[in-house]
Design goal:
Elements: E1 4-9, H1 14-25, E2 29-34, E3 36-46, E4 51-57, E5 60-63, E6 67-72, E7 76-79, H2 89-108, E8 111-112, H3 123-132, E9 140-145, H4 146-156, E10 159-162, E11 169-172, E12 175-178, E13 182-184, H5 186-190, E14 195-203, E15 207-216, E16 219-226, E17 247-251, H6 255-267, E18 272-280, E19 285-291, H7 297-303, H8 307-317
Parallel strand pairs: 1-2, 1-6, 3-7, 6-8
Antiparallel strand pairs: 3-4, 4-5, 9-14, 10-13, 10-14, 11-12, 15-16, 15-18, 16-17, 18-19
Helix pairs in contact: 1-8
């Protein structure tokens, strides 16, 4: 176990903590950086015979020559900068961005589960890839026009609205509010202005159940979520009902679906990710999205998959 592993994550990420517990059990050699990671360059040597990066972050010296495996889980990577107020501030920012780009490139060259550059995959691009891979998706409209939205509702009968990019909390009066997937009906349309900010709408799928699938190196760990029986979770299972939780069970994916999902993950250059799908009342599999840094504990623990142990072993064995 002479390999050194670099992990960048959040200190409150439960999935990371469970993997770390296994790394400690296996006595693996690793460095963990939490939250906002500001790299400070000690030296970068680029010569004919070698390239050497010596960095510092959170009081930790990192020699990239000693790092064999990199796992980006969560958090933000940036360059440490002093607050500057002078004519050279923009120049310094451009210089720092060039350094950061090079550092991330060198990190992503390491053996890894996922790299930093693979964490923000456009969801519209995902839907396009799903179509090209012959996976079904919900009919989707992104529009600024009430007229177009009215026509979309007339055609699809029942629709939902959701974020174009990702669910992020919006703080109002000190309270974090989450933009869950929500039903959108004729009353909502009538309350819209003639033109509005670009918004994403999809046909509402009448589901038999939902699937949360964790993908890791061409293997699938799938869980069926029976969210449709609860009025609180039937549109978005993330709107959890703590008092009456959904029933979650292990699920075996058909070979054809696994093959198509593998194609998507390869085209997205993802070694791992959490995939959301719906199985509708006709038994059709509907692709929704893939989150490169989605939680896997919510699949691993209820289904007894031991994903945390598997990831820890992969980090050691790479």
């Amino acid at each position: 176990m002479n390999k050194k592993i670099l992990i960048i994550t959040d200190d409150a990420d439960d999935s990371s903590n469970l993997v770390i517990n296994w790394l400690l059990y296996f006595k693996a050699d690793f460095i963990r950086l939490n939250g906002k990671v500001d790299f400070e360059v000690i030296s970068i040597t680029i010569e004919n015979s070698r390239i050497k990066l010596l960095l510092k972050s959170q009081s930790t010296i990192i020699n990239l020559d000693e790092i064999s495996v990199f796992w980006y889980r969560r958090g933000n990577i940036s360059m440490l900068t002093d607050e500057m107020d002078n004519p050279f501030v923009n120049y310094c920012k451009i210089e720092n961005n060039a350094l950061l780009e090079f550092i991330i490139t060198k990190l992503d060259e390491k053996q890894m589960v996922n790299g930093y550059s693979h964490t923000d995959i456009n969801k519209c691009q995902q839907l396009e890839l799903a179509i090209k891979t012959n996976l079904k998706i919900p009919n989707t409209l992104i529009t600024t026009s009430k007229k177009n939205l009215t026509s979309f509702l007339d055609t699809n009968k029942t629709i939902i609205t959701k974020s174009i990019h990702a669910q992020i909390p919006i703080e109002i009066a000190g309270i974090s509010n989450f933009l869950y997937t929500s039903d959108f009906n004729t009353t909502d349309v009538s309350n819209c202005s003639d033109y509005f900010f670009p918004t994403k709408f999809q046909t509402k799928i009448e589901k038999l159940f939902e699937l949360r699938i964790f993908y890791l190196d061409r293997k699938f760990y799938a869980m069926a979520i029976f969210s449709q029986t609860n009025s609180r979770t039937k549109t978005d299972f993330r709107n959890y009902d703590r008092k009456d939780p959904n029933r979650n069970i292990p699920f075996k994916l058909p070979k054809q679906i696994k093959s198509k999902l593998t194609t998507i993950m390869k085209k997205l250059k993802l070694a791992s990710g959490s995939i959301d799908m719906i199985v509708d009342k006709d038994g059709e599999y509907i692709f929704l999205e893939v989150n490169p840094i989605g939680q896997f504990g919510m699949v691993s623990i209820p289904c007894n998959y031991g994903i945390e142990n598997i990831i820890a072993k992969k980090l050691i064995e790479y």
